[in-house]
Amino acid sequence: MTSSGSATDLDQVILPAIPPVHLTNGRIAPLQVTDRLRRGSQIVGRFETSGLAGFKVSAQGRPLRVLVSLSADERSVSGWYEGNTEPATLPRLIQIRSQGLLRQCVLLRGKRAHARVAFDLTPEEIPDDGLICVEALDITEGDGVCDEVRRAVSGRVAPDGVAGVRLDKVVFEEPPPVDYDPDTLDGSRCEVYSLISAGGLANVNRQGVRVLRSGMFVVNPVLKDRFGSSGRITLRLGTRAEAVSMIPATWRRLNSELRWLRHATRKMLHAAAPSVERIISIRDGDLGAPAQTVHGNITELHLDSPAGSPLLVILAPCPDSVPTLESGAAHQDQGSDPADG
């Protein structure tokens, strides 16, 4: 046996992940630290409750883009590792943090919900040892979340919301020099881009209108130079009646048909536009009266692009219908010239 300083031939050399890299296995050496995360073989792992994963990454003084894929399934329940199978009936509101800071929030609803999170780390945020931590915390835990948010979602989201959530994949890569993005995205694409989180998508390739069954959604800070990262955002909100064909042929079907007729009447009278009740910064609290305008059956919600904190948007109840996100449009700051720079 030979030695050099405090190291010996018996010391294990941990090879860091070298970007670009897709990590989809919890048995790999770069996954150095876990807290309340059970490692997986075909996924990175499954959270027992709020916890973290720490990866050793060779950043070499460069900024890094971190892409995280999460999902919920039939095992995503409190105490799943002890055999509990009682399903969660309320949506989950989860904070995604890295290097001690809140990056985005995720709303997951149902048993087949997939969500994506994306954020950039500066070289100054990556320590010399290359350890990058990805944390998933329930909205009721940790610092930096205002009490107004926690009061607003009390009884509307599941307690212990991280329990059983899968950490499917973590990607580390260099931010591309330029990102091309359209000026308008449909509701589902807004969620795929991680601009909003409204419950997660069962099919991440889905396009079109996004139904907002939870009555709320999150607007997230997004990547630099990506859709919605500067200027202002306009989100077009509508309503939709429940499909009668989806209701069994009982009194519930009759009740559904009556609701559909009432909603159709409201749309004929141009009275079916939804209303935004509150917008709350996860970090800073209530932002005051929402800036919204109504055009027929569509409500346009006008927002400044979120910067340091996700925004929680709470919708007023929609009689006889469910609210929808039709599309999102990004607007540049006034006075900017797309040809500049």
Can you walk through the features of this model?
By secondary structure, the protein is mostly beta strands. It has two domains: 18-175, Galactose-binding domain-like (Jelly Rolls), CATH 2.60.120.260; 180-244 and 260-330. Helices cover 9% and strands 38% of the residues. The chain has helices at 147-153, 187-192, 251-268; strands spanning 3-4, 7-8, 21-23, 31-39, 45-56, 64-71, 92-98, 101-108, 114-121, 131-138, 166-173, 184-186, 196-197, 210-211, 216-219, 232-240, 276-281, 285-286, 291-295, 298-304, 311-315, 322-331. It starts with a strand and ends in a 10-residue tail after the last strand. Residues 1-5 and 335-341 have low confidence and may be disordered.
Quickly name the level 1 CATH class of the largest domain.
Answer: Mainly Beta
Question: How many beta-strand segments?
Answer: 22
Shape: globular
Strand-residue fraction? 35-45%
The second-level CATH architecture of the largest domain is Sandwich
Poorly predicted regions: 1-5, 335-341
| Helix count from the secondary structure assignment | 3
Number of spatially distinct domains:
2
Largest sheet: 9 strands, antiparallel
| CATH fold annotation of the largest domain | Jelly Rolls
Q: State the share of residues found in helices, binned by percent.
A: under 10%
N/C terminus separation: 58 Å
Radius of gyration: 22 Å
The pLDDT mean sits at: 88
Write the layout of secondary structure elements.
Blueprint: E1 3-4, E2 7-8, E3 21-23, E4 31-39, E5 45-56, E6 64-71, E7 92-98, E8 101-108, E9 114-121, E10 131-138, H1 147-153, E11 166-173, E12 184-186, H2 187-192, E13 196-197, E14 210-211, E15 216-219, E16 232-240, H3 251-268, E17 276-281, E18 285-286, E19 291-295, E20 298-304, E21 311-315, E22 322-331
Antiparallel strand pairs: 1-2, 3-11, 4-5, 5-10, 5-11, 6-9, 6-11, 7-8, 7-10, 12-22, 13-15, 14-22, 15-21, 16-20, 16-22, 17-18, 17-21, 19-20
